[in-house]
Amino acid sequence: xxxxxxxxxxxxxxxxxxxxxxxxxxxxxxxxxxxxxxxxxxxxxxxxxxxxxxxxxxxxxxxxxxxxxxxxxxxxxxxxxxxxxxxxxxxxxxxxxxxxxxxxxxxxxxxxxxxxxxxxxxxxxxxxxxxxxxxxxxxxxxxxxxxxxxxxxxxxxxxxxxxxxxxxxxxxxxxxxxx
Length: 179
What we know:
Blueprint: H1 3-20, E1 31-39, H2 49-61, E2 66-69, E3 84-91, H3 93-110, E4 127-132, E5 152-158, H4 163-173
Antiparallel strand pairs: 1-3, 1-5, 2-3, 4-5
């Protein structure tokens, strides 16, 4: 069992039951999935950009990414229907907990001028979205091997019913929010 899952079971569930008055531990909000997404707009002009994105996501997540395609043509952005416009990876279960543990303890500490996550990045549906300007903050990426920089976003989905519950869950799990 991963460190974060163990912390969730032993510390977070009892604390959330005490704060919100849940009668059953299955009513306590839990993590559902993590989605890592990269928009590949530069792939229109740079052919090797998709290869860079694919290898980056494979290293970061340990899974093969799925390329997302345009649903319809948009002439202003020079996009045609079925053109590859991004890549995404969805993590669940044990891999998800390992990724979030690494995100909290290693990756966020490597972000330049990091002062904590903004509580506004948690939406009403119970999701936390974190955007990274550079993919080099992840420990699997060696900065001397990087040819092209790109950003990515990490979305953590929960089954929490509101923003207050979600913030409490993430705070108890150890996410560093601004005071």
